[in-house]
Amino acid sequence: MRGQASMPTPVPRWKTAQPAARTVAPPNGMNLLVVDDDSAVRHACCEIGKSAGFQIFASGTIAESEAILNEQAIDIVLLDLRVPGGSSLDLLERARSAHPELVVILMTAFATVASAVEAMRNGASDYLTKPFALEELMQVLDRARRRRTFELEARRLREGTGESRSLSSLLIGNTAAMQQLSRMITKVAQSSHPVLILGETGTGKELVARAVHEGGAHADRPFLAVDCGALVPSLIESELFGYVKGAFTGADKAKDGLLVAADDGTVFLDEIGDLPLDMQTRLLRALQEKEVRPIGASEPVAVHARILAATNRDLPAMVEQGTFRKDLYFRLNVVNLRVPPLRQRRDDIPLLAAHFLERMRREDGVDYVVSDEALRVMHEYDWPGNVRELEHAIERACAISSGPVLTMAELPTQLQEYRAQTARGGSVIAVAPAAENVTVVHQSPGIVSIAELEKQAILNTIQQLNGDKLMAARLLGIGKTTLYRKLKEYGIEHI
Ligand SMILES: Nc1ncnc2c1ncn2[C@@H]1O[C@H](COP(=O)(O)OP(=O)(O)OP(=O)(O)O)[C@@H](O)[C@H]1O
Fold first, then answer.
1. Which of 9, 30, 122, 495 could covalently link to 75 via disulfide, CB atoms 3.0 to 4.6 Å apart?
2. ipTM beyond 0.90?
3. Which CA distances in Å does 198 have to 175, 246, 341, 400, 458?
4. Probe residue for ligand 1, chosen from 169, 179, 206 as the CB with the greatest number of ligand atoms within 8 Å
5. How far is residue 174's CA from residue 171's CA, in Å, rounded to a whole number?
6. Per-residue pLDDT averaged across 401-423, rounded?
7. Where are the domains of the chain?
8. CATH code linked to domain 176-342
9. Ligand 1 midpoint to CA 389 (Å)
């Protein structure tokens, strides 16, 4: 807090015997500035930051910190509330106005709701009360890293990078797995072999197919996609191979099949595992002979298109069972690209979220942001429906949100259930940034209901903030409308 008397700062008590709940993911070379005049705390924080993969800068005064912020590309600041030579809150305000994406974590031994509120008003994204455990610092740094990634991506998307149809703008993702996939795509795009794209539903297989097409020499030619699982067998045949006039009732004029209509572009056969066996035989012949015979035609027609196929099914097992032709499998599987599930590349979640929010901003004109709590749950949730599920979650949240901040309350039920489950599994629920006089509810599973804990948390926070419901909603990480709805549910809307 401003104007506080100088007092010795307690050294963090590191709970070294206890493993951290989650390790901090590699922060992709991010720069962390640690500002604290207490050399023991500063040193300890630097060591932890370094072990978490950050590039470390350290300072013990406001002036020195300001100089570092001006000269270095700092991503995250761990800032003590009382530093000699000026006000930390003023520094926070100046730093955030010069670098709006800077993520600042305030540390203090004298936490009060008032100082937490003021820090948040000045743009701090998190709050750490001394003495804190190693585990807490790791978690706060992990959150800050995700917040920073999200802010940077949102800015990159807002400003546009001029690479509108490049691979990186089509396929969002910066994890090692996605970088490797991008390199493979760039390589296979240069050839004309068939490619088999494998991965769970919603991982982005069709997008990968488009990226292969866009990266190839015939990017300006057609990209025609067909979902083999969505068409009845007779339609697949006419869709893929075409027909001549009078080939069957209703064929009043000839129609090219997709393999011919794509010309020297690309045909993408989605859900290839659903292709009936007789169609597999015809497709194999088309691939081998590079020609097709439309239904009712006496002469074959040349095929120049490149074939890409995708499936989320286990094709080798289908080959074993005799439901997928082995020779077609080998033909399609000359090269395969495997798209990893989202849970194996969690660090792409903030990037993808920022990407979908930017799209919503263009549609609605609202500059949406995700609350830290929502971002944390999104990062930890397993996303069985992969990127598609994330995309839908964000679209839904924007559609029902009454303001620009998307909170847990706007996320789909499955994420709320996930949060409730993880909260139930743990022993402590912190209801607000860890400030001394904000209630931290210790929960024994089965004794107090989540609803009761939630009610206590809301009431305590409003009380501590002298009735400031808006700020209470912010501190609790829920929307204002949700807070009012909950108060109504408790029958105390006039509190
Ligand atoms: N890396 C990504 N970057 C941006 N958007 C993505 C990414 N991956 C997937 N998406 C989006 O997620 C949705 C699902 O992707 P897509 O249809 O390509 O998945 P799929 O693996 O083909 O799914 P299915 O197996 O169900 O056909 C699409 O809206 C797509 O644009």
1. 30
2. yes
3. 18, 39, 10, 34, 46
4. 206
5. 9
6. 88
7. 31-159, 176-342, 347-490
8. 3.40.50.300
9. 9
DSSP 10: P
Cα of 208 vs centre of ligand 1, distance in Å, is 8
pTM for the structure as a whole: 0.65
Secondary structure class of 389 (helix, strand, coil): helix
CA distance 219 to 258: 17
Q: Which CATH superfamily is domain 31-159 in?
A: Response regulator (3.40.50.2300)
User: Rounded to whole angstroms, how far apart are CA atoms 242 and 296?
Assistant: 9
Of ligand 1's listed atoms, the one at least distance from the Cα of 203 is 21
Pocket test for ligand 1, best of 164, 180, 198, 203 (most atoms within 8 A of CB): 203
Which residue has the CA at smallest separation from atom 7 of ligand 1? 204
Which residue is listed with tokens 């996939």?
181
Q: Could you count the other beta carbons within 10 Å of the beta carbon of residue 456?
A: 14
Reduced to 3 states (helix: H, G, I; strand: E, B; else coil), residue 185 is: helix
- Nearest CA owner, ligand 1 atom 18: 204
Assign domain 347-490 to a CATH class: mainly alpha
Q: Ligand 1: distance of its center to the CA of 182 in Å?
A: 15
**pLDDT tens, 268-321?**
999 999 999 999 999 999 999 999 999 999 999 999 999 999 999 999 999 999
